[in-house]
Amino acid sequence: MPVISLPYAYLEELVGSDRDTILSRIPMFGADIERIEEDNADIEFFANRPDLFSTEGVARAMRGFLGIETGLPEYRVEPSGMSFSIDPGLSGIRPYLGSAVIRNVSFNEESIVSLMGLQESLHWAVGRGRGKVAIGIHDLDSVKPPFRYLAADPDTSFVPLDFDREMTMREILTEHPKGRDYAHLVEPYSRYPLIVDANGDVLSFPPIINGELTRVTTSTANILLDTTGTDQRAVMTAVNIICTAFAENGADIESITIGDSEVPTLAPVDRVVDASECFKLLGLSLTDSDMVTLLEAMRYGAVPEAPGRIRVRVPCYRADILHDWDIFEDVGIAYGYGKIEPLLPPTFTSGRGHPYVRMMNMVREILCGMGYLEMMPFTLTNDRILFGMMNRDHDGRAMRVMHPITEDHTHVRCTILPLLMETLQMNVHRELPQRLFAVGDVVLEDHTRQSVAAVSMHPESDFSEIYALSDVLKRELNIPCTVTESDDPAFISGRRADIVVGERVVGVFGEIYPAVLTAFQLEQPVAGLELDLTAVRECLSPPGTP
Q1: Position 490 pLDDT exceeds 70
Q2: Residue 298 — φ and ψ, nearest 5°?
Q3: 139: helix, coil or strand?
Q4: What are φ and ψ of residue 82, in 5° steps?
Q5: What are the DSSP E strand ranges found in 232-295?
Q6: DSSP 3-state of 202
């Protein structure tokens, strides 16, 4: 989850309260204090509250929570007279655009750091690593409207941010650090997204890098915001959060014409909620008036519409409000969970560990004893990692997500080993040796089973090391198995083996194939293992165990 650095002086100025009061109340707001430094505090916020990923957003929320300024924040939006056109050729590449003009910006070092931090946090939480949304912030005074969002020839050149020479878009993908990081988002296409002004000067190559021409500095007074992406709601969420953060620091917001629409509007969304449902869910005895007061402390607009019915105006930056219960949660936060009287449950039960859990704990104990560090990789992944990068054929048995929210999360994992390879890829800068394992559920077709995988990466990692690990596992778990030659293409021929119980292959281990190492950008040998733990259950569980 994002950790946001809050500089005391800037925070106190925006909130209108002292740091001690703010820091004492932040944990009650649903955030964790990571570090308290001399000049700033580092606070961890939940990923579902991207509006709190800046000092300005935190200050707005804390003013309400502390009773300094309650109710719905009002944001005026005036038309800028500027426009953006969208090339129809972007429809299959990156079709959605959001924008705004932000005037009379007052920047100092702290506000610039807050803005840059907000941008990167939104890239992670809302943009899913820029795949879903990418954000560009430009010095408006250095470009000329109207603006165009194009599907451009990859040989188009401009000077990218932090460089002093022109580069083509193709060159940026291989030579610029940001280009190498995000090249996979545009490489599959024959044309790349590009934003230019009326003179043809390049503002941005989304989702990769801005142009040096529109660099934002402390002297920047007027800003052009662009957000591009593959999801219109997410694109406008980013626009609303950034615009309202600037407005909290005194900036003026102006809309831009995109097609037939003026964006943004920064208008709240109205919902009517059931007060009795809220009180029942929270276990509180309150009145409708009490609920209105608590909602206003959380920066909603709220008025009683009828007995037991509250009309709630949800601020435009609260993208996390998907259900009435999300609003009820804020009522509980404003009331204070520490004020809720704890009660003993009317029924007492005793429990014991499930056989699956006891078995997986045994596996953890064995592997930790062998010097392996446990990882917890995601359950959702994609076929590129599960099969393509592992040099394996897609056998059609992996369960697809019906409506994936990103291209990175299209499948439920059917094997854990590829996710450990991905973990190694993300930690190539760490010291060696790296010995990792993960244990948990996998889904094959419509069946859930438990699996364990382990990898070892260092210059001398080989078949003998992983064979020894498999031998320890089968001995300690009492698995009556044999080892036979494997044909798994993820491993090197002659240095791979299957673990067989009866006539069923329950595991595989060996040295990872060089093409797989290259796909995961690994430069050291890796030995890996994966074992289906149903083999353990069959050997250890008493008859009738589910």
Answers
A1: yes
A2: -95, 15
A3: strand
A4: -100, 165
A5: 252-258, 261-263, 269-274
A6: strand
Token digits of residue 204? 């941005």
Query: Is residue 94 within 8 Å of 229, Cβ to Cβ?
Result: yes
The per-residue pLDDT for range 109-130, each reduced to its tens digit, is 888 888 888 998 999 888 888 9
CB 524 within 8 A of CB 487: no
Per residue in 246-283, pLDDT tens?
Answer: 999 899 999 999 988 999 999 999 999 999 999 999 98
CB within 8 Å of 18: residues ≥ 6 apart: 12
Which DSSP letter does residue 183 get? G
**H/E element, 36:** strand 32-36
Residue type, 146: P
* Residue spans of alpha helices (H) in 16-103: 19-25, 55-65
End-to-end CA distance of the chain: 36
The DSSP 8-state label assigned to residue 212 in this structure reads: G
* Angle (CA) 22 28 33, round 5°: 65
**Residue 228 · residue 222 · CB < 8 Å:** no
Number of neighbours of residue 267 by Cβ within 10 angstroms: 12
d(CA 256, CA 517): 47
Nearest by Cα to 335 from 301, 302, 272, 286: 286
* Rg for the chain, CA atoms, rounded: 27
Query: Tokens for 371?
Result: 């010097």
Task: List the structure tokens of 508.
Answer: 């595989």
> DSSP class of residue 322?
-
Distances (CA, A) of 326 to 66, 77, 235: 21, 27, 22
**Phi, psi for residue 474 in degrees, rounded to 5:** -70, -30
The dihedrals phi and psi of 395, each to the nearest 5 degrees, come to -90, 5
For the chain, what percentages of helix, strand and coil (3-state, to nearest 5) are there? 35, 30, 35
Is residue 514 reached through a cis peptide bond, with omega within 30 degrees of 0 on the bond before it? no
- pLDDT score of 413 more than 70: yes
Cβ-based neighbours of 206, under 8 Å, separated by 6 or more: 94, 134, 136, 193, 194, 195, 226, 228
Which of 243, 201, 227, 256 lies closest to 82, judged by CA? 256
Total residues found in the chain within this entry: 546
- Contact, 77 vs 254, CB < 8 A? yes
DSSP letter string, 423-485: HHHHTTTSPSPEEEEEEEEEEETTEEEEEEEEEEESTT--HHHHHHHHHHHHHHTT---EEEE
Instruction: Read off the pLDDT band of 537 (50, 70, 90).
Output: low
Predicted TM-score (pTM) of this structure = 0.71
